[in-house]
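Record format v2
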Amino acid sequence: MSAGPAARAWPAEGLARVPYWIYQDEDVYRREQERIYRGDTWNFLGLEAELPEKGDFKTTFVGEMPVVVTRDEKGALNCFENRCAHRGALLCLADRGNVREIACVYHNWTYDLRGDLTAVAFRRGVQGKGGMPLDAEPESQAPRKFRVEIFCGLMFATLSGKTPAIERYIGPEVAARIRRVMKEPVKILGGYTQVLQSNWKLYFENVKDTYHASLLHLFFSTFRLNRLEQKGGVVVGGEGGSHASFTMMKSELSGDEYERAGMRSASGGYALQAPQMLESVDEIGDGVTLQILTVFPGFVLQQIMNNLAVRQVLPKGVGRTELVWTCFGYASDDAKMTELRMKQANLVGPAGYISLEDGAATGFVQRGAAGASERSSFVEMGGRTVESNESRVTETSVRGLWQQYRRHMGL
Amino acid sequence: MDVELQLNIENLLSRYVHAIDDDRLEDWPGFFVEKGRYRITTAENFERGLPLSIIYADSRAMLLDRVSALRHANIYEAQRYRHIVSSTLVERMDANTVHAASNFQVVRIMHTGESMLFASGRYLDRVRLGSESGQAMFEERIVVLDSRAIETLLAIPL
């Protein structure tokens, strides 16, 4: 029998240690659903551009809770639980579509696009017989409605009235780094899902971990896309929950730290036959070639040269996570720009030159720590606290995640 | 029915999957003409007309880069595929060009012994007859995956 979260104590070293039970414990997982996903957090739902027309809807998840996102007759965005008030069946079965109202297939109870119950089939019976009592209040079990806020075309939802406004939640420095990517209307270029055999937090840590990028992803460092001596930095905001790491195009340093350190990723002499794929355009105009950004608990925004994408991190059990990728460009792109973005899409996703390892690496931790629930990982690169840093040889944003997480979880 | 053409195309498809399943990845780009296109996408993206691919190459050079990255740069656990290809429909477009559509399933076998149905879908091919090497070669191969979900990673090409 596993000990409940109340019986678990965080290691005395604080943010510099992460106990392995946090990725393994069923009780922790259940408490996360309540305190994080249904608590005071903003959950990413997708891009506003996915729902351009009145009546458009999509289905997705907030934690494990299925939800419907709609654009109603007035053009406003809504999010509500994908659960009928009657017997709890899914209201929307399709991934996306356009509707005037939503009817549960089970007993044809109908809802408007804001998730309000509008009709109960045979509520007054048939020919004076049957039907519900006059004082019945089926609305009392209505699907829960979320607060929805849009920031730069990104849709977020929270069940809590206490969650601060989205921009304050993200923090000003990280919000500014969202703004630079979402600088104009976008168009969807496609998506896919990557299924990870690991706890969701291992993936979220991986995205925040700037230390691993040039060590695990050899493709990057070989082509000098993310050598640690290149200029860049890490910004941590939102009480630790949000972060942005970035790399500048031109390096003023000419270090050879990799070669001197004898790292595996320093293997030289590797050349591409078709390097045109890596010819990028400085379309934002600030020289930043790479930016990875997160917002707790499950949003990732990436700019990798001209490849732009959002990722939604969805927990699917203690040891399973789905990563929903959506790549996009700007509505103003011409065919040539779209082609460049599509070539650079080779860098990302489940077959990405610089990302395919991430899918496996989080699983290596899940498997490696299987017998060590009472031991901890060691997170002291760059110190033991949380702060923005000019160096990316740091785990500051990983510690930021745990600072935010522990506050929500009361751990 | 042009039996000889059917067998010619099926032979190309068979040689292709044997090269991948036998871990002769270096032979893989040679099944494409120099300006050959290769793309793995999902049925969802394909049917919605969205351009995103999981892997995309518009030249043999880009396929060679994929192989050298898999051999020298990318890190992934030892694994093999077993392709099953069937139901190939062949349509001649002109003297040198053939369209073919086939079904496939790919079993992925990990070094741990774990086997899983990793992918299923369609190959949509444009094949050039009597090209550079004298053999049929792909001008375009679109791999349309039935599912939008990929388990862990997709390293070896399909």
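Chain A touches chain B through 36 residues (CB under 8 Å).
The first strand of chain A starts at residue 17 and ends at 19.
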